[in-house]
């Protein structure tokens, strides 16, 4: 269990560092400020236009919108 906890702590600290970096750049951490998610599908899929928009920042790419949408 010690190894599992160490890996989880490493992942959490890595994500926290990523969020702080994106806060400084005022970009959404999930889409990296692009406003949309890219899907690397391996088969043909039908998706509407709303499927590509980042749900975390509502397609704006801004950190402030992402932060207001976070549930704590």
Automatic annotation (TrEMBL):
Matching InterPro entries: HSP_DnaJ_Cys-rich_dom_sf (IPR036410)
GO MF terms listed in the record are: aminopeptidase activity
Identify the keywords attached in UniProt to this record, alphabetized: Aminopeptidase, Hydrolase, Protease
Source organism, top-level taxon: Bacteria
What SUPFAM superfamilies does the annotation carry?
DnaJ/Hsp40 cysteine-rich domain (SSF57938)
What name does this protein carry? Methionine aminopeptidase
- Look up and give the organism this protein is from: Cytobacillus horneckiae
């Amino acid at each position: 269990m010690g190894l599992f906890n160490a890996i989880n702590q490493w992942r959490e600290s890595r994500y926290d560092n990523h969020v702080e970096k994106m806060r400084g750049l005022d970009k959404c951490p999930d889409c990296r400020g692009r406003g949309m998610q890219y899907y690397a599908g391996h088969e043909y899929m039908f998706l509407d236009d709303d499927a590509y928009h980042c749900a975390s920042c509502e397609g704006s790419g801004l950190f402030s919108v992402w932060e207001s949408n976070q549930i704590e």
